[in-house]
Amino acid sequence: MVAIKRVIDYAVKIRVKPDKSGVETSNVKMSMNPFCEIALEEALRIKESGRASEVVAVSAGPAQCVDTLRTGLAMGADRAIHVEFPGTLYPLSIAKILKALVDAEKPGLLLLGKQAIDDDCNQTGQMIAGLLKWPQGTFASKVVLDEENKVATVDREVDGGLETLCLDLPAVITTDLRLNQPRYATLPNIMKAKSKVIKKLTPQDLNVEIRSDLEVVQVTEPPKRKAGLILSSVDELIDKLKNEARVL
Amino acid sequence: LSTLILAEHERGAVKASSLSAVEAAKCVGEDNSISLLLAGSGPSLQEAAAHAASCHPSISQVLLADSNKFAYPLAEAWAKLVHLVQQKGSYSHIIAGSGSFGKNILPRAAALLDVSPITDVTEISGSNLFVRPIYAGNALSTVRYTGSGPCMLTIRSTSFPLEGTAAPSVSNAAPIDKVDLSTLSEDDAIGKSKYISLSSQDTDRPDLGNARIVVTGGRALKSAENFKLIEKLAEKLGAAALMFYQVGQTGKIVAPELYMAFGVSGAIQHIAGMRDSKVIVAVNKDADAPIFQVADYGLVGDLFEIIPELLEKLPEKK
């Protein structure tokens, strides 16, 4: 199972709304979160290598998430589940929804992006792993499955370097940028995806109560760094660093 | 108010990022009693505990969890430990640094406590009011925590620098208390993950957290071989050397006194990771590269000419 999120496209320049209530999302291109694409790609490669029988893409959020799931189906997911909820969903609620889906679907592996590029929370994978009491391999840059021993060996990008863990399956893995290069959906696959099934559920169907313990007070623009000087020579640079900035 | 710090230690000392978490805890409010949780096993843990007890005047208690379950930073055991300690101590706040250690463990612990955590806090405006960057730092969000459980945060250590370097006060050392771990083994996730290895990067140069100067190389380097140029320059400056993709939304957040970027174009994801540096120098062939918009000093030119010239002309490090 792969969890995917619909976010503002990574290439869009973010604009804060003048009333400070959030960022502008109307008439803005939306896409699948890049880290989720990597998670889905990894799941597809696992299936293609014969180590999984099916890839299920799931997403929770407003009605338009169906578009993102459709993209996932076009990349190669077999079917999709959309848990529709119009309001804000924080990672704790998403984790509870995912737990209910895992309980129902019983996947052998749950893959997620390590974070979404909108709220940059980096929480959901760890939280769902905690709720499921499954082991977790976060920030993965390499995943090797060993079906015989029912374990996954995961290389994790940590502050000091690369950490390798061995996880009992089923497990939760969250993907880092360098795990793989996601594929593009081809036209025939986009056409094929149109006939694939997207099951619709609500949090109520899953007996998940949506609670919100956080309130966004305001969203503002970060302070701007003023553009600096363009220098003409290395000598000038060394002089500036020594005598003006005093950092050498 | 009472705060539990999920601390990290290395070679018998509390890491600087965990002491930044103590600084952050001080911002939560006055009369905040701060407990530092240290876990691990063996003599280096005992050494770290002694260091923790006297390294920061605001630490009022050190909690020690000594078990081979904590020999490595496995989230399954550590999250359960935080859960256990919270149930006994009922802290109002739980804080960890937002490095890979804290980000891996704290959300899992929060889920066990049924709490919504707040990641990457850069400013604390009250006991339940926090500022954090979103969209790779392109917007700042102020959030209020309204939940009933403890308020759980990871903080950016670059935003909570250590105040001075007060001399360790051995006379005033905080008490060290052992955590009762007898109920820990009940959780069935512990033991489902095994630590295999850590391949660490070069440790001769200062690590990122402490580096006063950071030098990064961008795509213009073209090959790993050419990265040696960046490393040479870093050596001369006593700096940490990185590739551009190691800094930013997907990598590390740095805020050194001097940040030098060579052949880095300056995608928003990268700038998010270094915009708080005191002085930024950018060298790029492309005069329109976005990095020049945040750089204090820019030099338009070929890094393959400029770095050798810098190597020749920079003063020798004393």
UniProtKB/TrEMBL annotation, chain A:
Name the UniProt record assigns to this protein: Electron transfer flavoprotein subunit beta
GO molecular function, one term: electron transfer activity
Location(s) in or outside the cell: Mitochondrion matrix
GO biological process terms held by the UniProt record: amino acid catabolic process; fatty acid beta-oxidation using acyl-CoA dehydrogenase
UniProt keywords, alphabetically: Electron transport, Mitochondrion, Transport
Domain of life: Eukaryota
Assembly and interaction partners: Heterodimer of an alpha and a beta subunit.
The species this protein was found in: Sesamum angolense
InterPro entries (UniProt xref): ET-Flavoprotein_bsu_CS, ETF_a/b_N, ETF_b, ETF_beta_N, Rossmann-like_a/b/a_fold
Stated family: Belongs to the ETF beta-subunit/FixA family.
PROSITE patterns documented for this protein: ETF_BETA
The Electron transfer flavoprotein alpha/beta-subunit N-terminal domain, residue ranges: 20-210
Pfam short name (any one): ETF
Signal peptide: none
GO cellular component: mitochondrial matrix
Protein purpose: The electron transfer flavoprotein serves as a specific electron acceptor for several dehydrogenases, including five acyl-CoA dehydrogenases, glutaryl-CoA and sarcosine dehydrogenase. It transfers the electrons to the main mitochondrial respiratory chain via ETF-ubiquinone oxidoreductase (ETF dehydrogenase).
